[in-house]
Amino acid sequence: MISTIYEERKGDYLISTDRSLLDLDVIHRYLSQESYWAKGIARDQVARMIEHSSLVFGLYYQNRQIGFARVMTDTVRFAYLADVFVLPEFQGKGLGKWLVEFIVSLPEVQVKKFLLATRDAHSLYAKYGFEPLNQPEKFMRKLGK
C-alpha cells in the first residue's frame, strides 16, 4: 500500500487517494450490480481488493463518491489498473478521462509495463498511451474461482 495521498480538485469535484474517504457501499453496489467484470462480487471481497491495492482512487462530487479506480503496482516494473468506473448519472462530463489522466500522471505508475483489461473503452485508454499487446502470446493467465 502506498501511503502518499494525492488529490486534485476541479470545482465541486475531487479525486483523492485517501482511503478514509471511500464509500464501500457505493463501490460494492456498482461493481456487484452494474459492472460487467465483477457482477455479483461479495462486499467483503471488494473490501479486501481495496485493502490490498497499492493505490485507490475515489472520485467525488460535493463529498459524494461518484467514481472509483484502483492500481496494483511494484512502482518499478509493473502496474495494473482495475475497476475504473463513474456512476452513470455523472458519465459524459469528462470525469472518466480526468480520472485516468490523474492516475497515469502519478510517479508510482511510471513503470515498464502498465496493463489493464477492457471490453469497450479502448479508445479512452489509447488517449493515455495504452495500446493492444504486441505479443499477446507471451502473456498467460490462471483463472481462479
TrEMBL record:
Q: Pinpoint the N-acetyltransferase domain residues.
A: 13-145
For this protein, the record's InterPro entries field holds: Acetyltransferase_Butenolide, Acyl_CoA_acyltransferase, GNAT_dom
Q: So which domain of life are we looking at?
A: Bacteria
Q: Which keywords accompany this UniProt record? A: Transferase
Q: Does the keyword Transferase apply?
A: yes
PANTHER family found in the cross-reference section:
FAMILY N-ACETYLTRANSFERASE, PUTATIVE (AFU_ORTHOLOGUE AFUA_6G03350)-RELATED (PTHR43233)
Q: What is this protein called?
A: Acetyltransferase (GNAT) domain-containing protein
